[in-house]
Design goal:
heterodimer, A: 413 residues, mainly alpha, 20 helices, 59% helix, 0% strand, B: 406 residues, mainly beta, Immunoglobulin-like, 5-stranded antiparallel sheet, 2 helices, TRAPPC13_C (chain B)
C-alpha cells in the first residue's frame, strides 16, 4: 500500500482506519460529484516565527552557573516525539516552526495555496497542542482560523484520487485537532461558543459510535470513540468553568459519571469536590466527599480529599493529620500534591517553620506549585542571607524540562 | 536637649529585627494548564505527561488543580468575616536580640482594639536568622478604613531598648445589602404579619447563603415560607455577584389575646441572622439591628369572626359567630345594627338594633348572626354596624368574612 505519510513506521491502514472516521461534508461531496480535485481550500500559515527562548536554561545558568544540555534531534516528526517525550515542549514548538516553514506553510503563507498532506496536518495538530500547553492562546486562535470548520474537501483522504483509489477514507485531520478547535473559543471574548462547538462535536461522535456498533466493529474501536466522547464532554465542562457557570459545569460532569471507568469516576468526583470548594458550598462539599469515600476506599490519595474538606472548614490541624495519612498511602514523601498541601496547611496552622522545611525537603524534582509556595513563604519568613530557595532549585533543576517557566515558578525573585 | 539627641540617634540606628505581615485569606487551588487528550493521538499523551510533571497533577483535563497555594495577592475583606493574618518577626542581623515582644492593635473608625497574641511575651529571645511567628484573628464588626498597627520592642546585645511600628491599612466594605418590608395580613380572621427580606450580594464574586433566619422576639412565633424543595437540588443557596435573593417569614403573635393590646404601636419583631460562605469556604456572619414595625391600629373596637361555614347551599340559613374586643381604655356600651343593603345576595335573619351590653376595657362580648344567601357564588359578609352609645360613635365593619354559596 502506498504510504500516506512520510513517517518512518507505517501501520497497515486496516489497523488505523477507525481513527480517521469522519462524516463527509457537503462541500466534499460536491467536489467528488464534480470530479474537481485541484482547488486548495485549506491554506494555513504560521503567524509568528519567533523562536521561544529556553527560559529554564537561562535561569539555571544564572542561579547555578551550570550549562544545561538539551538534546539533539532529527528535524522531522520523530524528532518532535523525542523532544515531547523528554518534556522539552519549547524546543518542540520551535521545531514545528522550522518544519512547517520547510513545508511552505511558514510566516506569511496563510491564505496562500501550499501542499497539504497527512504529515503537515499532523505537525499542525502537534503545534496547536504545544500552543495550548505553552499558553500561546492568541497565536493558537489566529493560526486555527485557516482550518475553518475542519471539514473542507482537501482535509479528507477521498479528495486525493491516488489515496482514495487505494481505499483510504475519512478525515486526514487528527481528532485531537477537533478537540482543540472546540476548546479554542475559551480564550476569546466569546467562550460560550466553545460549549456550542462541543455539543456539535459530541453529536457527531455519538453518531460514529452508533454506526460502529451497528457495523459490529471491534470492541476496542468502539471503546476508543467512547473515550473520545468523554474528552469532548470534559472540554465542555471546562468551557462552563471558564465562564464561572459552576452549576452547568457540574451538570456535565454528573452526566459523565455513569459512562466512565471506575478510575476516571474517582478523578471526576475528586474534581467535583474541588469545584464545590471553589463555589464555597458546604453541602456540595459534603456530598462529594461522601461519594469519594464510597468510591475510593483503599486507593491511593484516599485521605487527600479529607484533607481538602478539613481545609475548607478552616480546620487546618485536622487537614495536616489527614494529609500525613495520605502520605503513607500514596507514594510516601514523593507525592508532590500531598507534600505541598501538608505544608500549606501547616502554614495556616501557625507552623511557618514546619511548612518551609517540609517544602524545602521535598526529595524529588519540584513542581511549579511547590516552587511558587516556597517563594511566597520566603517573602514572609526568610532572612536576606537565606539561600535555601536557591539551593532547592539547584538540586533538581537539571531534571526540569524546558517547559518550566522560572518566572511563573518565582524562582528568580 | 541631651535626651532628644539620644532619641534621634536611636531612631537613626538601623533596626536589627524586621516585621512582616501576611493576610491569610483562604488558600486557593492552583489552576494548571488544561487540554483535551485523545488517547489515540501520537503527541497528546506525551504532552500531558510533560505538563503533569510541572503541575504535579495526573491529568490535563481538569481546571481546578489539587495543590493549595499560599496567598499571593491581597484579597478584599468584608464585614462579618474573620480577619486572619500571620505576623513574622525576623532577626535579619548577626546579633541576638532579647525581650522581643510584639503587640498588635486594630484601629477602626470607632475604636482601637488590642489583639490577642502570644508574641506579647517579653522574655522571647531571637538568635540571628531566626524568627517568631503567630497567626492572629479578629472578627470584623465595622466597615470603613482599618489599620493594623504592629509594634515591636526588643533589646540589643548592648542592652539598648529598641522599638518600631508598622502600619497596614485595608478597607472593609459591606458584603451584602439587606432590605426588609412588612406586610400586614391582619384581618378579621388572623393576626399574622409577613416579613419579606431581600438580600443583595455586593461582592464581585458569588457567595453561598448557608442560613438566613429571623430570630423573632418571644412575643412572636416565626415560620419561614419556603418554595418546595426540588429533589435534584443538593447545594445551598448560590447567590451570584449583584444578585438578589428573597426570603419570606410569617410571624404570628404568641398570644391567645386577640385584642393584641400589647402589640400596638411600634413593636420589635426580631433580627435577621445571615451566615454565608465565599470561595474556598471563607465564612461570614451578620445580624441586622432589631427590626420594628408599627402595628395598624384597630381603633377602639376589634371584630373577629369566630366561626362561619366555608360553604353553604342557596337559601339554607347559616350562623356567623362573632366576638367584639374592647381595645380602648374606657368601657363601651354597644349596640349592633345590620345594614342589609350592601350585599343584595345575603339576607340577615337576626334583628338589627340588638343591645350587646357594656364591655369593660380589654374585655369581650360575643354574639351570633343568622343569615341566608339568595344566589350562588363567593359572597362577602358586610353591613355590621357597632355603635358605642356613651360617645355616640359607630364602627363600620364590612367584608369581614367570605362564604361560598352553591
Amino acid at each position: 500500500m502506498p504510504r500516506f505519510s512520510r513517517m518512518s513506521q507505517q501501520p497497515p491502514w486496516a489497523e488505523v482506519a477507525h481513527l480517521y472516521i469522519w462524516p463527509e461534508s457537503t462541500s466534499l461531496q460536491n467536489a467528488i460529484d464534480n470530479g474537481k480535485f485541484e482547488t486548495v481550500y485549506t491554506m494555513p500559515g504560521i503567524k509568528s516565527d519567533d523562536m521561544l527562548v529556553d527560559k529554564m536554561a537561562v535561569a539555571v545558568s544564572q542561579i547555578t552557573g551550570k550549562h544545561v544540555q538539551r538534546p539533539n534531534v532529527a528535524t522531522n516528526v520523530d524528532g518532535l516525539k523525542q523532544l515531547i517525550a523528554q518534556g522539552h515542549l519549547r524546543m518542540a514548538y520551535n521545531l514545528t516552526t522550522t518544519l512547517l516553514t520547510g513545508y511552505g506553510q511558514g510566516l506569511g503563507r496563510a491564505g496562500h495555496p501550499s501542499r497539504n498532506s497527512f504529515e503537515t496536518f499532523e505537525i499542525w495538530s502537534c503545534r496547536f497542542q504545544l500552543m495550548m500547553a505553552l499558553k500561546l492562546h492568541q497565536g493558537l486562535v489566529a493560526e486555527l482560523s485557516a482550518f475553518e470548520n475542519l471539514d473542507a474537501p482537501d482535509t479528507y483522504f477521498q479528495y486525493y484520487p491516488e489515496l482514495a483509489q487505494q481505499g483510504y477514507t475519512g478525515s486526514m485531520l487528527p481528532f485531537q485537532m477537533r478537540l482543540i478547535h472546540a476548546e479554542a473559543p475559551r480564550f476569546t471574548p466569546n467562550p460560550v461558543a466553545s460549549v456550542t462547538l462541543c455539543c456539535a462535536l459530541a453529536e457527531k461522535v455519538r453518531q460514529i459510535i452508533n454506526q460502529l456498533k451497528a457495523d459490529a466493529a471491534p470492541e476496542a474501536h468502539v471503546r476508543l470513540w467512547e473515550q473520545r466522547l468523554e474528552t469532548v464532554l470534559l472540554t465542555k465542562a471546562r468551557a462552563w468553568f471558564t465562564m464561572k457557570e459552576y452549576h452547568q459545569c457540574i451538570a456535565v460532569y454528573t452526566e459523565l459519571l455513569p459512562l466512565v471507568s471506575d478510575e476516571r469516576k474517582v478523578k471526576i468526583l475528586q474534581h467535583l469536590q474541588r469545584v464545590a470548594v471553589v463555589i464555597g458550598d458546604a453541602k456540595l462539599v459534603e456530598h462529594y466527599s461522601r461519594e469519594i469515600t464510597i468510591q475510593n476506599s483503599g486507593s491511593a490519595n484516599f485521605y487527600l480529599h479529607k484533607g481538602i474538606k478539613a481545609a475548607f472548614y478552616g480546620n487546618y490541624g485536622k487537614a495536616v493529620e489527614n494529609l500525613q495519612a495520605a502520605q503513607k498511602g500514596s507514594g510516601g514523601l514523593t507525592n508532590p500534591v500531598v507534600a505541598n498541601n501538608e505544608a500549606i496547611c501547616q502554614l495556616y496552622h501557625d507552623k511557618v517553620e514546619e511548612a518551609q522545611s517540609h517544602l524545602l525537603s521535598f526529595p524529588v524534582t519540584a513542581t511549579e506549585p511547590i516552587l511558587i509556595n516556597i517563594s511566597t513563604i520566603a517573602t514572609l519568613a526568610a532572612s536576606s542571607k537565606d539561600d535555601s530557595k536557591r539551593k532547592f532549585f539547584a538540586k533538581s533543576c537539571d531534571k526540569m524540562s524546558d517547559l518550566f517557566d522560572p518566572q511563573a515558578s518565582k524562582v528568580l525573585c | 536637649m541631651a535626651s532628644n539627641l539620644v532619641e534621634t540617634a536611636a531612631a537613626a540606628r538601623e533596626q536589627l529585627l524586621t516585621l512582616k505581615v501576611m493576610r491569610m485569606s483562604r488558600p486557593a487551588f492552583h489552576e494548571p494548564v488544561t487540554m483535551a487528550v485523545d488517547p489515540a493521538d501520537p503527541f497528546a499523551s506525551g504532552i500531558e505527561k510533560a505538563v503533569n510533571a510541572i503541575s504535579g497533577s495526573d491529568s490535563m483535563e481538569f481546571p481546578v488543580g489539587e495543590c493549595l497555594m499560599a496567598p499571593q495577592a491581597l484579597d478584599n475583606i468584608y464585614l462579618g468575616e474573620t480577619f486572619t493574618f500571620q505576623i513574622v518577626v525576623m532577626n535579619d542581623s548577626p546579633q541576638s536580640c532579647t525581650e522581643v515582644s510584639v503587640k498588635a492593635d486594630l484601629q477602626t473608625v470607632k475604636r482601637t482594639i488590642t489583639l490577642q497574641s502570644r508574641l506579647n511575651d517579653v522574655t522571647a529571645e531571637l538568635a540571628p536568622g531566626k524568627f517568631l511567628s503567630q497567626v492572629a484573628t479578629h472578627e470584623i464588626k465595622e466597615t470603613g478604613q482599618h489599620i493594623l498597627i504592629c509594634s515591636v520592642s526588643y533589646k540589643t546585645p548592648d542592652n539598648e531598648k529598641m522599638y518600631f511600628r508598622k502600619f497596614f491599612k485595608f478597607p472593609v466594605n459591606p458584603p451584602i445589602d439587606v432590605r426588609t418590608k412588612f406586610y400586614n395580613a391582619e384581618d378579621n380572621l388572623n393576626n399574622d404579619v409577613y416579613l419579606e427580606a431581600q438580600i443583595r450580594n455586593l461582592c464581585p464574586s458569588a457567595i453561598v447563603l448557608e442560613k438566613v433566619t429571623l430570630d423573632a422576639v418571644e412575643a412572636y412565633i416565626c415560620r419561614e415560607i419556603r418554595p418546595p424543595a426540588s429533589t435534584d437540588e443538593v447545594g445551598n443557596v448560590y447567590l451570584p455577584a449583584k444578585s438578589v435573593r428573597q426570603y419570606l417569614f410569617c410571624l404570628t403573635p404568641n398570644t391567645s389575646d386577640n385584642s393584641l393590646v400589647h402589640y400596638r404601636g411600634l413593636t420589635t419583631i426580631g433580627k435577621l441572622d445571615m451566615c454565608w460562605r465565599s470561595s474556598m469556604g471563607e465564612k461570614g456572619r451578620l445580624q441586622t439591628s432589631a427590626l420594628s414595625r408599627v402595628t395598624p391600629g384597630h381603633g377602639e373596637l376589634r371584630l373577629t369572626i369566630e366561626q362561619i361555614p366555608g360553604m353553604v347551599p342557596v337559601l339554607q340559613p347559616f350562623v356567623i359567630s362573632c366576638k367584639l374586643y374592647n381595645c380602648s381604655e374606657r368601657p363601651l356600651d354597644l349596640v349592633l345594627s345590620l345594614d342589609g343593603s350592601l350585599q343584595p345576595d345575603i339576607v340577615f335573619c337576626s334583628t338589627s338594633g340588638q343591645h350587646l351590653g357594656q364591655v369593660a376595657p380589654s374585655k369581650t362580648v360575643q354574639f351570633s348572626l343568622n343569615a341566608f344567601a339568595t344566589a350562588a357564588g363567593l359572597k362577602s359578609i358586610s353591613g355590621l354596624r357597632i355603635t358605642d352609645t356613651f360617645f355616640r360613635r359607630t364602627n363600620e365593619h364590612d367584608e369581614v368574612a367570605q362564604i361560598f354559596v352553591h
